[in-house]
Amino acid sequence: MDTSAHRLNANLARAQPSATYRMMDRVAARRSSGASVFSLSAGEPDFDTPEHIREAAIEAIRAGHTRYTQVAGMRSLREAVAEKFQRENGLDVGWQDTIVCSGGKQVIYNALAATLDEGDEVIVPAPYWVSYPEMVALCGARAVVVPCGIEGRFKLTPQALCKAIGPRTRWLILNSPSNPSGAVYTRDELAALADVLLAHPHVLVLSDDIYEHLIFDGAAFFTIAQVEPRLACRTLTMNGVSKAYAMTGWRIGYGTGPRWLLDAMEKLQGQQTSGASSISQHAALAALSGPQDFIGKTREVFEHRRSLVVDALNAAPGLQCEIPGGAFYAFASCMGLIGKITAAGTVLKTDEDVARALLDEASVAVVQGSAFGLAPYIRIAYALDDDTLVEACHAIQGFCRSLSDPNNVDA
Ligand code: GLU
Predict the structure, then answer these.
(1) Ligand 1 centroid vs 4 CA: distance in angstroms?
(2) 281-298 as b/e: b if 16+ CB within 10 A
(3) What positions does the domain Aminotransferase class I/classII large occupy (predicted)?
């Protein structure tokens, strides 16, 4: 068929596909052809959704809760969301100040699409989750990427924020604990960023708190609208059940923010996907209003895995990994591998080469740091059981040891 008469939307054509999903697809393709792969690429808990949540969904089906819900979510779920924001984050929120969407991604995309015009700017500290800049591009706006390297523990400083703000800035995106670095902002660090934002009333703040409960070393979680209540009127605080309750496939995200913004997001969603799945909303209601012990247990498991993985990565020649404060990712510098040659003869010029060779030659799937805006790094998701993680780390170590150095002729 001649497709020359057709073209894609220009914003879509400019945006990149999701690098995390790309790697997950590669893993699935290999597995379906019979190969075994250690998948350290997907950012999703490996636990089953707790039993009482699954039962609530089954009960919802039996009870016939199988029809459309309100676009912004069932009233009972929105009340539970408001209660969660009050209980855990100290936010002064009523149910009308909330919205429920089909996954955290839709909360973020709705907010950006509802507000951005051509030429607007969004400040995205790097390393960032792969989808932020692409969503901004889809909306025809420009991501202003602010590099936040290891020297500042991957965190945005007030000085860098101040420099990045311009007349076209519409949003700052914050994500703590961070995907991919695991960096966690303290109360004081958020307060210092808030001070800068108070001087720039035209900037909205999107706080992606999806890893809220995966925070280690006894540290406390803070979100910016809680630290600086004067910012609440221009902050979208978003979260979801995916990571906290091992519910990635149920697709429920939620948020709270100023009513004008929530109304615009609801209008957009009402013309797009309508309300989220009624069954999933009932499951999310059980998650938010039922027993919360699952959260503490999984945090302990991830904290244990973090040490296991970080120690193993630091024992691999050429890799260097700081101890992340939260989430379930290790973000390791692979600078020491760049320029080396693999057993199959590939020269590792970039972190993308490293990720590809790890998959091809060691059957380990990771995601390259460049997809997160900081190179040369690799992101390792440690959402696997201990035995598999140990095996996968051995495979990474073996790969690193097998590399030859073209500058060292004796090697
Ligand atoms: N957020 C997870 C990750 O970074 C899931 C995949 C995605 O949506 O990017 O791996």
Answers:
(1) 34
(2) bbbbbbbbbbeeebbeeb
(3) 37-396
Closest CA to 317 of 297, 340, 283, 295: 340
C-alpha to C-alpha distance for 405 and 411, rounded to whole angstroms: 7
Query: 219, 185 in Cβ contact below 8 A?
Result: no
Instruction: Name 93's Cβ contacts closer than 8 Å, sequence gap at least 6.
Output: 82, 85, 86, 256
pLDDT in tens, 90-136: 999 999 999 999 999 999 999 999 999 999 999 999 999 999 999 99
> Ligand 1 centroid vs 251 CA: distance in angstroms?
12
**Does the reported pTM lie above 0.90?**
yes
Decide: 18 in ligand 1 pocket, CB within 6 A.
yes
pLDDT at 1 exceeding the cut of 90 = no
Residue with the smallest CA separation from ligand 1 atom 1 is 43
**With a 6 A CB cut-off, is 20 part of the ligand 1 pocket?**
yes
**Ligand 1 pocket test, candidate residues 44, 247, 328, 378, most atoms within 8 A of CB:** 44
Work out the burial of residue 312: count CB atoms within 10 Å of its CB; fewer than 13 is exposed, 13-18 middle, 19 or more buried: buried
CA atoms of 377 and 374, how far apart (whole Å)? 7
Please answer whether residues 242 and 23 qualify as being in contact, where contact means their C-beta atoms are separated by less than 8 angstroms.
no
Which residue among 22, 23, 105, 131 is best mutated to probe the pocket of ligand 1, counting the most ligand atoms within 8 A of its Cβ? Answer: 131
Please indicate whether residue 104, judged by its CB atom, sits closer than 6 Å to ligand 1: no
> Tokens 């609208």 — which residue?
225
